[in-house]
Design a protein that fits this description.
Number of helices of chain A: 0
Strand order of the largest sheet of chain A: 1-2-3-4-5-6-7-8
Strand content of chain A: over 45%
Number of strands of chain A: 16
Number of domains of chain B: 3
Shape of chain A: elongated
Strand order of the largest sheet of chain B: 13-12-9-10-11-14-19-17
Distance between the termini of chain A: 42 Å
Helix content of chain B: 25-40%
Low-confidence stretches of chain A: none
Mean pLDDT of chain B: 91
Number of domains of chain A: 2
Oligomer: heterodimer
Distance between the termini of chain B: 32 Å
CATH architecture of the largest domain in chain B: 2-Layer Sandwich
Shape of chain B: globular
Chain lengths: ~170, ~500
């Protein structure tokens, strides 16, 4: 049985997964979730749609991988999880505290206007740019303060969720 | 009378399909138009012929009157149906059609101009004896004018940018002491945002319901109305759920509102299908808001209740034929609800794009679905987020709600996020269930962040990781050299009006 630590924000789950067998498309697992044993039947209905029966309780879940994140949607609740194996327990000793931050696109869209330039000092909520998608124009602002190191987009560019917009110190 | 045998549908997505279905039932050949982004779209495959009208941005394709008229002439269509959105309420479109010898399925250019100018429409409503919201009839330029007008109509009052729209540039003043500072701010904001500091003042209707009347006017001026629709479930002026009949309207009020709507339609010389929107206050008084010179997104609820196919009647009227029914034929049976399925995150309402990987459409008793998307299709950033409208009919309100809830749960769309989970939360909301609700019903719901399924979601992530066998120890691949933070989306949202 492999043990994983699954984290989203301040929530963390310790989940042990042991594969029992396969019946055609059905994968059967023994799962230990926070110390509780469960029998899980999983079927991949389409590349992103996982049908789960957890002790016969049915869940339809959408799972996509985006970089290091697992994006999971279940009945309208959306989560991005970081998953690591618990084997070595803690990750490498106290990682260095990062000093730079990449501000990413919170929505897809086309860049209409950019308000900032490298060297600008910005406060939290400083307006960075305008993104337009599906007839909606949204002003995107900074989640924290810093100095602009790099502006990675220009008007006319299309961005996806998670694309780098700005690098700040 | 001029028999129509071929119609160009100047639109895309679910509404293009809706209009084409009416064409098919009448034995009329439907012709589609498409932008470069839409070659694979469902409406293109459904039509008999399809014409490319330009690149992906609407301003270069679906908003180009010349391309629409050109495609209609090239394909030998006699008529154009504009659907809703895009060019549907642009009075230059019916004019261009007339000049090209094409029938525009909708009102005349003149009627469209009259109802499109909100100030003029309000004056016309007053002249026709239709109740309007008390307020200034012209833009005000001085504080003392605002103060006098506010005293006349009574607080709370609303300050609206003369050049604003869609809820932008609107402020509420609930007490005389607040008037001066809010007025100054509203003026400078209006000047900055719209290049026009003009402000209108009107009475603020507290906790109103949004109720509208569907009208159909034949080319000889004979007019009927098809009762009301309740559209109070909105979020930032975007409608989410509509129902008919309205739980707040009785037979007497229905007659009064219907007659007021018809008086207005006659006053502006309206023809074809249109909708007169009203606000209903808590004392049961109603006020004219505006007339929408087009088919409405929520027309299916009226069709389910009355049995009238509004799009087919639009085509008949445009041909110069009488409608297939009279006011006496119009019954109202049971209850109908519509949910607008938007490609938006159900919690943040941010646009969601992507490829539809899997789709299971609801069906079964009492369910009607109009969808513009199909598996394998890409939902892009270029167009309106409305991807489908789901309607449910029941013998009473309770059955209609139960059917809608059942259908929403059946509906699977994978690849994009949709508002389906938000609709389910509204349908279970005690105030919605009671029928006693108004336009603020979504405000409390938006703040709630349900989290009941996180354990099952985490399990799915663990199973996916186990399957992939390539989980990196310690998470972030660039060794946490940088934080990754999503940009904030501000409240200041502009919605384009086309």
């Amino acid at each position: 049985m492999k043990e994983f630590v699954v984290e989203a924000g301040d929530r963390s789950f310790r989940i042990g997964v042991g594969k029992l067998k396969e019946h055609g498309p059905e994968q059967l697992y023994e799962v230990v979730m926070e110390g509780e044993k469960k029998l899980v039947s999983a079927v991949s209905v389409s590349p992103a749609h996982l049908s789960l029966l957890v002790d016969n309780l049915s869940h339809n879940v959408e799972v996509r991988r985006e970089g290091e994140y697992y994006l999971v949607s279940i009945e309208g609740e959306n989560y991005s999880f970081l998953v690591r194996e618990a084997a070595g327990t803690a990750p490498a000793a106290t990682p260095p505290v990062p000093t730079e931050a990449v501000i990413t696109a919170p929505m897809p869209g086309m860049v209409i206007e950019v308000f900032i330039r490298p060297g600008d000092k910005i406060d939290p909520n400083a307006k960075l740019l305008v993104l337009e998608a599906m007839k909606m124009q949204n002003e995107i602002s900074s989640p924290r303060k810093g100095e602009i190191i790099r502006v990675s987009v220009k008007p006319g560019d299309s961005v996806k969720v998670g694309d780098e917009l700005v690098l700040i110190s | 009378m001029s028999r129509i045998s071929k119609i160009l549908v100047a639109n895309r997505g679910e509404i293009a399909l809706r209009v084409m279905r009416a064409c098919r039932e009448l034995g009329i050949a439907p012709v589609a138009v498409f932008s470069r982004a839409d070659r694979a779209a469902r409406h293109v495959r459904y039509a008999d012929e399809a014409y490319k009208i330009g690149p992906a941005p609407s301003t270069e394709s679906y908003l180009r009157i010349d391309r629409m008229v050109g495609a209609a002439k090239e394909s030998n269509c006699q008529a154009i149906h504009p659907g809703y959105g895009f060019l549907a309420e642009n009075p230059d479109f019916p004019r261009a059609c007339a000049e090209a010898g094409l029938i525009f399925i909708g009102p005349s250019e003149e009627a469209m101009r009259k109802v499109g100018d909100k100030t003029r429409a309000k004056k016309l409503a007053e002249e026709a004896g239709v109740p309007t919201i008390p307020g200034t009839s012209d833009a005000i330029g001085e504080l003392f004018q605002a103060s006098r007008a506010a005293d006349e109509v009574g607080y709370p009052v609303l300050l609206k940018a003369a050049a604003g729209g869609g809820g932008k540039g609107v402020r509420v003043v609930s007490h005389p002491d607040q008037l001066a500072p809010i007025y100054d701010r509203a003026r400078s904001e209006a000047a900055a945002a719209f290049n026009n500091p003009g402000i209108y003042l009107e009475k603020f209707i507290t906790a109103p319901r949004h109720i509208e009347i569907q009208v159909l006017v034949e080319s000889d001026g004979r007019a009927v109305h098809l009762n009301e629709r309740e559209c109070s479930v909105q979020r930032r002026y975007q409608k989410l759920i509509e129902e008919a009949p309205s739980p707040a309207v009785d037979e007497k009020l229905r007659r009064e509102m219907g007659e007021a709507a018809l008086r207005f339609a006659r006053a502006v010389g309206y023809t074809n299908a249109g909708t007169v929107e009203f606000l209903l206050d808590q004392s049961g008084k109603f006020y004219f808001c505006e007339m929408n010179a087009r088919l409405q997104v929520e027309h299916p609820v009226t069709e389910l209740l009355t049995g009238v196919d509004i799009v087919k009647e639009q085509i008949r009227i445009a041909e110069g034929s009488p409608t297939s029914f009279t006011r006496e034929d119009i019954g109202s049976r049971g209850w109908a609800i519509e949910c607008r399925i938007y490609a938006e995150d159900p919690l943040t309402f941010l646009p969601s794009t992507g490829k539809i990987i899997e789709m299971i459409e609801p069906s079964g008793p009492g369910i009607r679905l109009e969808s513009g998307i199909s598996e394998g299709e890409e939902v892009t950033i270029h167009y309106d987020p409305l991807v489908a409208k789901l309607a449910a009919w029941g013998s009473d309100r309770q059955e209609a709600i139960a059917r809608m809830e059942r259908a929403l749960k059946e509906y699977v769309i994978i690849g994009i996020r949709t508002t389906i989970p938000f609709h389910l939360r509204i349908l279970r909301h005690p105030r919605f269930l009671s029928g006693h609700y108004h336009t603020a019903i979504t405000e409390g719901l938006e703040k709630e962040r349900p989290g009941g399924r996180i354990a099952a979601a985490a399990l799915a992530a663990a199973l996916a990781a186990e399957g992939e066998q390539r989980v990196k120890l310690g998470g972030s691949p660039d060794g946490m050299k940088r934080w990754r933070l999503a940009g904030r989306v501000d409240e200041g949202i502009r919605r384009r009006s086309w």
